[in-house]
Amino acid sequence: MPRDATATREEIMVAGTRLFARRGLHAVTVRELHDAAGQRNASALQYHFGSREGLLLAIVERYQNPIDEARAEWLARADDLGGYVEALVEPPAALLSTPAGRHYLQIINQVVGDLGLRDSLLTEPPNAVRALAAMAAEMDDVPTDERNARVANVVVFVTAALAHRARLVEARRAVLDHDAWVADLVTSVIGALTARSDRPARTVGSPRPRAGARPRS
Fold first, then answer.
1. Nearest one of 121, 147, 134 to 71, comparing CA atoms
2. How far apart are the first and last CA of the chain?
3. How far apart are CA 199 and CA 206, in angstroms?
């Protein structure tokens, strides 16, 4: 690919990463992407990425693959639930140190929250899958359905927490330093996974107990 074409592609990716993070995946237009990248050619994005979704996929792959490679190193040292949670959290948390990384964390939170985009865009990073499976295996005292639900909720929680932290860092409003914040997130995830559930299972359609109501004897 010629040098100028490589530069054009990179300019569009940089502009897309910033705009998708700040304005939202569905709000950014192709024209805005061209303008932000300084491109006068109205077909530049289509030429390099095929579509807005193709651009988004390229952005996700740029960051997702190195994160998962780093996760393999964390997994190699992990031998308990805490280690597996660290392997899930630490690699993406490292992206909080750069503006582009913070933008990506806000983007991936939107992707995870949008099931349509998630189905079409997200691959299954193998080491993320390994980390989640290892976490579930450590919860052998939790019923299978509840265990799977907790692990799924953790994915949503961690991506949302990282995106929120990214916005706070951008706004210079973060209270805890990075290491303390990551340690607290890991602790929170472990707590969510291992919390004892004293509430009885409720079938679909059954009434929800009123708060503070005493069980009938």
1. 134
2. 76
3. 14
User: Do residues 109 and 163 touch, judged by C-beta distance below 8 A?
Assistant: yes
Angle in degrees, CA 164, 80, 90, rounded to 5 = 30
Cβ–Cβ < 8 Å for 108, 165: no
> In this structure, what token pair is assigned to residue 48?
């390099």
Phi-psi label, residue 54: left if phi above 0, alpha if psi -120 to 50, beta otherwise: alpha
Sign of the CA dihedral running 189, 195, 201, 207: negative
Residue 3: is its pLDDT beyond 50?
A: no
Residue 7 has pLDDT above 70, yes or no: yes
User: Which stretches does DSSP call E strand in the chain?
Assistant: none
Can you state the percent helix, strand and coil of the chain, rounding each to 5? 70, 0, 30
Closest CA to 133 of 152, 118, 119, 113: 152
**Considering the entire predicted model, what is its pTM?**
0.85
| pLDDT classification of 217: cutoffs 50, 70, 90 | very low
